[in-house]
Amino acid sequence: MENLLQVKDFLVTVKSLDSLSWRILPSIREMIRLLNERLELCCYGEAIEFLMLTFVVLPESNQRHENYLRYAENAMILQYRVPYEPVALAFPRENLTFFAHQFLEALHFYEEAQLEGFQSFDFIQFKADAEEIFEMQEWIESS
Fold first, then answer.
1. Is the separation of the CB atoms in 24 and 5 below 8 Å?
2. Is the pLDDT score of 29 beyond 70?
């Protein structure tokens, strides 16, 4: 399953089994709707104008889709593998909390990569603002 959700600065895709779509898509749609309403990538520097994130939610036996980061023409393209079992067993509201945490984990993982071209993007502030939005929604607890 690969479903596209796009609004403004963000594109999120999910690679998963079709049977999980009802558990995943409502959470992803809500998270991205909120991020697009409250965040603008241009406020964090000129390096990234578009962020594409693919969550990979597949059983561990499927190793075809690993984490990666690419940067091209002011776009950051991330693929981030998340644990399969918690998603497969959770209901959409629980997955909202799960994916909010995974979004922040993905940012932390890629912040450390420090690829050429990202230097002028303020990852620290972007992550802090996303975290604050998730806290206000009570999707994550205050740190």
1. no
2. yes
Half-sphere exposure of 71 (CA within 13 A, CB side): 15
Question: pLDDT digits over 84-141, tens only?
Answer: 999 999 888 888 999 999 999 888 877 766 666 677 788 889 999 999 999 999 999 8
Per-residue model confidence (pLDDT) at position 114: 61
Distance CA 55, CA 99 (A): 9
Give the span between the Cα atoms of 143 and 132, in whole angstroms. 10
| Residues in CB range of 33: below 8 A, 6 or more apart | 7
Question: Sign of dihedral through CA atoms 38, 90, 55, 102?
Answer: positive
- Name every residue whose Cβ is closer than 8 Å to that of residue 96 and which is 6 or more positions away in sequence: 26, 27, 30, 31, 139
Beta carbons within 8 Å of 83's beta carbon, 6+ residues apart: none
CA angle (114, 101, 24) in 5-degree steps: 115
> What backbone phi and psi angles, to 5 degrees, belong to 3?
-115, 130
Return d(Cα 134, Cα 13) in angstroms, integer: 20
Q: Return the DSSP state at 94.
A: H
